[in-house]
Amino acid sequence: MNVEGTTVLVTGASGGIGAEFARRFARRGAARVVLVARSEDKLDALAAELKGTTEAIPIVADLGVPGGAQRLVADVRTRGLRIDTLVNNAGSGSYGDFAGLAPERIGAEMQLNVVSLVELTRLFLPELVESGRGAVVNIASITAYLPMSGMAVYGATKAFVLSFTEAIWHELRKTGVTVLAVSPGPTTSDFHRVADAPENGNFETPQQVVDTAFRALEGSRRPPSVVSGRTTRFQSRVIGLVPRRTRITLGARAMAS
Ligand SMILES: NC(=O)c1ccc[n+]([C@@H]2O[C@H](COP(=O)([O-])OP(=O)(O)OC[C@H]3O[C@@H](n4cnc5c(N)ncnc54)[C@H](OP(=O)(O)O)[C@@H]3O)[C@@H](O)[C@H]2O)c1
């Protein structure tokens, strides 16, 4: 995949993995990188950092509310932009027993992680196909591979992202659009603080996650999905081999340990 001269839109670009994707696409020669999130100050700071490397265009949008994806697409159109690569990275989780989670928080999480991701993919798809070198990169998680007692809704949203992305990878394989699901394991970012979640496991950096994604995007194999990090990749394979009841126990242990 050659992104030189293209326009890339990254959701959740105000920090963590999304900001690193934006930096990497800029360094790889993207002509324009559209930075989307709610925190205007952080988007402006990243746009200033990228000045001279690419044209960085911050757009403030809340993708956790109904209509958020449609409003973002309208904003992109008003600015006369056409997107070649869409990185659906914005996502959040909530730690705790399902029964204790606020219903509004659950709704916003599903809207952000699932509904907006699907809507943005569908709404931008015609121009990605027309581009001739379009790409969709969706950020899933190791939690897509097993039920996560303690983060039940989050894990289920990421299982959706993985399943959805692999299915459209097959549907779009003859269109020239590259499709990839990236599943990070624990990664240093604001994610755990926002989710009120304990910081368990071997942490990767956002740079390492983006390295994994670019190896897949730039290699010849064009996989439908990749898991980032040796330990996390090993875990994802083992999970596939054990009975479902054991998977549930493993998920619960991973959250509690
Ligand atoms: N960190 C991990 O351990 C880990 C592991 C596996 C998968 N992931 C996934 O990786 C992706 C990136 O997460 P991260 O680790 O980089 O966490 P992060 O630092 O918390 O970044 C999340 C990004 O999403 C944006 N966002 C949150 N709510 C939003 C909303 N309603 N509308 C628009 N943007 C919103 C945030 O920006 P604003 O707050 O400014 O809106 C931020 O830019 C997520 O999909 C996450 O599920 C993370």
From TrEMBL:
Keywords: Oxidoreductase. PANTHER family: ALCOHOL DEHYDROGENASE (PTHR42901). Residues 6-185 form the Ketoreductase domain. It comes from Winogradskya consettensis. This is Dehydrogenase. The keyword Glycoprotein does not apply. It comes from the Bacteria. The keyword Translocase does not apply. InterPro entries: KR_dom, NAD(P)-bd_dom_sf, SDR_fam. GO terms for molecular function: oxidoreductase activity. Belongs to the short-chain dehydrogenases/reductases (SDR) family.
